Amino acid sequence: MFHNQYYSAMPGLKEKILSLAKEIYPKLVEYRRFFHANPELAMQEYKTVSFIAARLLEWNIPYKDKVAKTGIVALIEGRNPTSGLIALRADMDALPITEESGASYQSLNASVMHACGHDAHMASLLGTAFILNQLRNEFEGSIRLIFQPSEESYPGGAKMMIEEGVLENPRPRCIFGQHVYPQLDVGVVGFRPGPAMASTDEIYISVIGKGGHGATPDQVIDPVLIGAHVITALQQIVSRNSSPQIPCVLSFGRFIADGKPNIIPNKAHLAGTIRTYDERWREKAHELIRNMAVSVCQGMGGDCEVRIEKGYPVLINDPALTQRANYAAAEFLGSDRVIEIDPRMTAEDFAYYLQVIPGCFYRLGIRNIQKGIDSNLHTSTFDVDEEALLTGSALMAWLAIKELLYGNK
Questions:
Q1: Domains of the chain
Q2: Using one digit for the tens of pLDDT, what is the confidence trace for 64-75?
Q3: Which of 46, 92, 355, 358 allows an S-S link to 174, with CB 3.0 to 4.6 Å?
């Protein structure tokens, strides 16, 4: 449990943070629009990192670049800097999507777009850096800023940065991350303790048959028909093998059989994803997928090759930390602007940080229907209400200082 006096400490802090956030806000809009107009794919974030480094230099915040190739890590030290350490993270990479938003700051890079809000994440963390740097003489401890590459591309920049020691020397007490959320209005944030996002794995199945003329199906082993049966049979893994208590999704989005109307091919290729909230069931499901695909194919006279590429783990927010963050956010924004969100079957490599240290990954509202801003993530018309940058930068600064204070008690 925690107590109200923890949150009543440091009088005037809220007002100072809000004042600084409003001061830097016009620049944050500029930063976000630069990132949005100049998106870069995973492990190619060179222009992005140069822009971030220039801002950190401008504010005299020390940093180290080329972490996990294109990552950058900065440090803000308060009074008694060794008394505690909090980490904050923003991801940087864009998606291979052609933008159709029509915004004045639309992507200048063909077929590349910030359709997942990483531009807003970076701008918000820069705003947080500005605020914390201005207030560094008013809190004890230090704050590590992690600008991470390659969230959208497995194995994920988080894993690579961890392997290069981003959570060591010293190890942070905890880590915060935020992600834009089109289902929430701008100015609203959402938290979820415990499991909050799913694991994600990709399934690739090559069905091997014997091709031939479509007019003589008795002389072929039809991989198209077999593939259809495989997809249908695999649905039983969720409906009849997975516990109803464990969220699980199995979906196939690709079925390629490169024949012709009258030509049955030799092979068909299937690709899908399985996502769940339980790591033990995750491993069991992989085994069931392999066994069932092989048995269906062989039972129909064919064969198959199954490859499952393991992706990000289940994202599990630390319950106690998330509860404190929820309470602090309500104090900062008002209880009407803080909600508990439902679990999602999407995935995030922030989960890797949470396997090492306690953390809280929360959602930042960006929707404004009156402005026509309500497109979903990973769509060509995605955009954010830039008022979210004010909330995103100020709240993360508030959470970091509050948690440093809490941890020192």
A1: 4-196+314-407 (3.40.630.10), 201-310 (3.30.70.360)
A2: 999 999 999 999
A3: 358
